[in-house]
Amino acid sequence: MTQDETALRAQMAKLCASLFQRGFSVGSAGNVSARLPDGFLMTPTNATLGEIEPDRIAKIDADGNHVGGDKPTKEVFLHRAFYDTRPQAGAVVHLHSTWATALSCLEDTNPDDCIPPLTPYVVMRVGPVKLVPYVKPGDPKSGDLIRDLCGAYGAVLLANHGPVVSGKDLFSAVCAAEELEETAKLLVALEGRKTRLLTSGQVTELNETFGRI
Predict the structure, then answer these.
(1) Catalytic residue of the set 53, 83, 107, 121
(2) Residue 126 contacts residue 183 (beta carbons within 8 Å)
(3) Packing angle between helix 170-190 and helix 98-105, nearest 10 degrees?
(4) How far is CA 110 from the centre of its chain?
(5) How far is Cα 127 from Cα 80, in angstroms, rounded to an integer?
(6) Is 75 part of the annotated catalytic residue set?
(7) What are phi and psi of 121, to 5 degrees?
(8) Can you list the alpha helix ranges (DSSP code H) found in the chain?
(9) For 3-53, how does the pLDDT look when each residue is reduced to its tens digit (9 = 90+)?
């Protein structure tokens, strides 16, 4: 195990614990992964994010074989689909966070624009969010649905399930997942009220100034 992999395992355990402690994940819900030069690290299946042990994090090689640690999350197909279609993605975070999951359950959520440009930070850190049709957790079809997007979205809401967010690295992906959740909370709080969104020109300015993956 290289020094970089050891450090990434430690960072993953620390960030997963932080997500759990602050209520972004409950029970054994949610899973996190990060890209390595020779494969991927993924949180184990049926594990609580609050007690991830660095040495037990699953390792998957570049061909998708489980080569170390505990058995990986059953959502491995979901994570691999993001990496396969978004080569710039260095990490993926899937949560069942309350407010984003609530949006994924609402019939009137816009499937092509689940998270409108309410604040500059959701534009900068998350970008457009697509609603993906429901499939049962762990179904390989979830990977097919992500691949069908051809890398156009860095984040999605799984219908009646929760958010999946990618980032250039693990810290960025966690921050983006948190930003999506907080924006979803604002959207639900503002529902039914006249809301001022950022204009297309303002969104373009943010993307040109700060960029995102």
Answers:
(1) 121
(2) yes
(3) 60
(4) 19
(5) 20
(6) yes
(7) -75, -30
(8) 3-21, 76-85, 98-105, 120-125, 141-147, 170-190, 200-210
(9) 899 999 999 999 999 999 999 999 999 999 999 999 999 999 999 999 999
Per DSSP, 90 falls in state -
| Beta strands at 162-167 and 66-68: parallel, antiparallel or unpaired | unpaired
Catalytic residue among 75, 178, 179, 181: 75
User: 3-210: CATH homologous superfamily?
Assistant: Class II aldolase/adducin N-terminal domain (3.40.225.10)
Q: How far apart are CA 32 and CA 162, in angstroms?
A: 13
DSSP 137: T
Burial profile 2-12: b = 16 or more Cβ within 10 angstroms, e = fewer: eeebeebbebb
* Structure token digits, residue 185: 């909370």
Is the separation of the CB atoms in 41 and 58 below 8 Å? yes
**Token couple for 77:** 């197909």
Can you give the residue ranges of every domain in the chain? 3-210
Q: What are phi and psi of 172, to 5 degrees?
A: -65, -40
pLDDT digits (tens, 9 = 90+) for 55-75: 999 999 999 999 999 999 999
In degrees rounded to 5, what are phi and psi of residue 35?
Answer: -85, 140
Residue 53 catalytic?
A: no
Reported pTM = 0.95
How far apart are alpha carbons 74 and 95 in whole angstroms? Answer: 14
Burial call 128-158: b when 16+ CB within 10 Å, e when fewer: bbbbbeebebeeeebbebbeeeebebbbbbb
